[in-house]
Amino acid sequence: MSSGPRIGKDEWVAREGEQRERRSGLLGGIARAQARTPWWAFLAVFVVLACLVPVVTSDSYIQRVAFDTTIFMLLALGLNVVVGWGGLLDLGYVAFFGFGAYLYAILGSSQFDIHVPTIVVIPVVTLAGALLGLVVGLPSWRLVGDYLAIVTLFALQIFRSVITNGHDIFGSNVTNGVNGILKVDPLSWFGHALPVSHRGLFNPDYLYVAIGFFVVIYVALRFVNASRTGRAWRALREDPLAATSMGMPIDWLKLMAFAFGAGIAALTGTLTASVNAAVFPDNFDVPQLITIYAMVILGGAGSQAGAIVGAVVVNVMLESLRSPDNSRWVFYIAVLLLLLPVLRSARKYLLLVAATVAFGFAVHAIAGAIDPAWTRGTTPGGGAVGRAIAHWAIVPQSLGSTREASYVLLIAAVLAVVTIRGRWKLVALVPTLYLASFVWENVLGPQPEITRYILLGAILVGVMTTRPAGILGERRVEIV
Amino acid sequence: MKKSVVTLGIAVGAALAAVAGASANSSAPARQTSGASCAKTITIPLLSVLTGPAAFLGNDQLSWAKLAAKQEGPKLGHTFNIVGVDTQLDPAIAATAAQKVIANGSYVVVIGPATSGGSAATSKAFFDAKVAHISPSATNAALTKSVGGKAPTATAAFYRVVADDSVQGTRDAQYIAGTLKAKKVAIIDAQEPYSVGLADIVGTYLKANGVTVQRESVTNNTTDFSAIVNKISKDTDVVFTPWQVASNAQVLGVTLREAGKAAVVFGTDGTDDPSSFKLAGSFVSNFGPDISADAAGKVYVDAWNKDNPGKTFSAFGPPAYLAAQVAMQAITKACKTNQNTYATRASVFSLVRNVKVANPIYGGAFRFSTKTHDPLNGSFWLFQIGSDGKYKQIGKLGS
Amino acid sequence: MVPGCSAARDHTFLLLVDQFIQTIVDSVTLGSVYALIALGYSMVYGILKLLPFAHGDVFMVGSFIGLGVLKAFGGAANPTISIWLVLVLMALAAMAGCAVLGVAVERFAYRPLRNAPRIAPLISALGTSFFIAYSMQLLFGANHRTYDTFTMAGGKLFLSGITWGPLHVSLVRIIVVVVAVVMMVVLWLLVSRTRMGKAMRATSFDREAAMMMGVDVDKVIVFTFVLGSALAGIGGVLFSLRTDVYSQMGFLAGLSGFTAAVIGGIGSVPGAMLGGYLLGLVETVTQTYISTGWSNLFIFSILVAFMLIRPSGILGKAEIKKV
User: What ipTM was predicted for this assembly?
Assistant: First the structure.
């Protein structure tokens, strides 16, 4: 797994190029095809697909998830400017998102009975967010690296403290404190309000609006990235000292990166505030920050397409893990996908899957013969697939302490498989996979809400340790 | 380069067109058949906090609601199933979760959301979709009542099976000022809606009755209560802790004793958990009597323990049983009015209001008030913790 | 005897002094735990230039191990063996368990990323943090539990101790502070007096040069994780003596530890200790003397100002990036 050289990082750089050349097979083919297709073709296809969501399905939940995903794509794009391009670890990012949402809510709700029209409020909020970004970015003139990161995290805590105590700022109720601001105005277009829902169902028009914003931001950022500023950002990220000596105004570049990210986050905040018709302090906290970071880094920091892929993968995965039926699919697909980089050979792969299936039936038959109670339980969520799996995986009627033991054993087994090399790895994988499905059907599946985060954590570790640059990130090496 | 400019132009145009077009187009979306088949398993979603720091709350509610489905369902002649839907502590996530529920036509009634913020954020959507939602724990008074001249934050789709904070806060304050004869009271909120709401009500009442009130807050990253305890003077009689985490009240109480301060800790329903809050002499008010104390309630607790071996539950659990009972009875009635074919959202929506639970988990009889969607004569019970750590029921608060 | 009026003023003055001394005692107790967590952060950062975000969860697991041992010996009120022995066993078990956990985390989540861009191990660490915290929730539920320290030895831990006038320093505070300080002294001796410590310092100074001088860097890194995680483990037990235990507690604790490590100057062992006590002091003083509701605003504003004045923390080296 640790493919890096033991001494000297330059060798790693050299090897990186070599590896890229050597890539063959399906993934390599995709990579080459991807390199040939122009970026706007991808964007166009993606946007058309996103716009088709409400046409394909009338399920307002799916439409709402599509909207939320677009929101996350916007947030990821903004964070990518600061972290991916500027190389600045901004842990206060979610404060700008909250700032935008709160400013929108204050300027358009019954809180102060002000109702500024959308056409005015969105530019105002975006600019104010960018200005706040400049202010929060100021410490970057003096602080670098993790010291900057912690100061921006402090900024987030200060922001949270202000909004939670904001019901009494020198006697006036600005943010309504912990109760949040309710009855926030929907978006409007020259006096026509755009209702948030129809008979309680999400109004898909908001999805189109969000996609519209997304396209504008995506394209604008693409041009920024290709401009002098964009190149200067990358120089700043790779080597601030060299950038300074080349005459680049690195202090301003840092502030620019902060302001761009903050402006986009604030803009996104207006969409969230309007669609939820409310803002609350808890919407803007460290968990949200981590989610957005996970999206950007998982997709590949520095890559716009990566940020989008990250947002889609993480948000859709987290959402689909909410119900046991979907989560079963996610689990088995994730397991099969994670096996790909481990095995790197189609023949071994098929052999392994076949062996596991066979092993499962054998164990199931033996267990059923010894004590029928061991196979008499039902799988979570049921359904045709669930019932089919119950003929293969052991699902006992009651678990007792097997529950805890099997989970811990699974972790140990997975870690062991990661360590073992050679042929034995393949052999060890068979019972491990079967154990995994046992744990899934008996322990994880029944508690999808906890499982989502366990799986998210495992996938973050898995992807990072196998593809440190993220799914679509360009492989590069930091020279410290 | 030229190509990119053209694309940019198209993209911007498309975005603007989308905004404009979307505003102009406000036709209602596709059809929506809502109904639960009476003959099959009827699934009721429970929106609650299932992950994160307060996850115990939702997990308790889920396990108790499931127990209700298992025990009460057969009596009503239907098979019920409860599914948990996670809202975390985040009202925005609750809003998405509500979409998930509304979009599924077979869901005709909802238990939850558990939090007051989540209930306020989702109530309009539920109302528009004609889905009644019955919360087992959202006690913010402003949800059903006009507070400070503002309209109630929830809609007519919202019901709750527990009395609201104005009842609890006022009665607690009456007890503190009247029976305990406190002269000096420290009120500590936990900077979340439930806590701040109760703290405000109690504070206002006490001040109006000539009690000296000291107000403090615990922030989301306070782990150690030494500083707050240090600020509380030795002659403080009562420390009022309207919190959601019982063990924190215990920690605060122990820190008080450690500092040689004799103030009585007075907790609310959120801190009612005999397994962690057991500081002798403390008080706890709750929306239900101690169900494990009497024989009738013990049956429920034993049944729960059988289904959840080795686990403990907090005070948030049992009301979910009652909320599930209300939901199941409303569905059963709706089935009856429709020749046992299927229950529609609209009929359940109109029937919830008149549900009467003859033998609720807390004894007595349960029905909603005719004025608001709160329980009729919702009361609070007061407990004092004995030196053995056991909760002794002192009685109903107020009249 | 002084006249009544002046006596009242003296009394108020004494109360203020008492409150101030109490504040210092509180801050030292809190700071001791922060320092223990911060040490792990700082040492790992020094060696690997990596922020081990899962460190807070190692701390949480330590706290749970303590609870497990306590339960195994019959609980706080009626332990089967002497309660003091139980406490020692809790601490030892937590240290051992966390050391194993820390080494496992290093081996599987950090080691494959040793030469990757710096942000990758950060995300891997966050993933590990999620994984550990939610695995604990899956296995043991989400309920907050306590050690029930108040029932240990009839409340002796809290009610007895050093009483000096109105000031009372309870036994549990003394235990927390003394154990933490002893741990830190032991750590200091290990780092400054032993061969392994020397290797650690060398690796921290320049990993490649140390490697070329024959230092087994892998061994040094494992040793660092053993030390840091063991400190987090005992920190977890000490922390829960005064507070509670739950599966999501690691995140906040980790954040405080991280903050302390950075303000102390990340990578510096004495800096982490100082940072821990400084953070404890700022928190306690703000809450006692300014406001509890607004405390975060003041705490974090003070810390921002501090970082601007000393951009590399108290004892951190000014970061010079070589080309």
Answer: 0.90
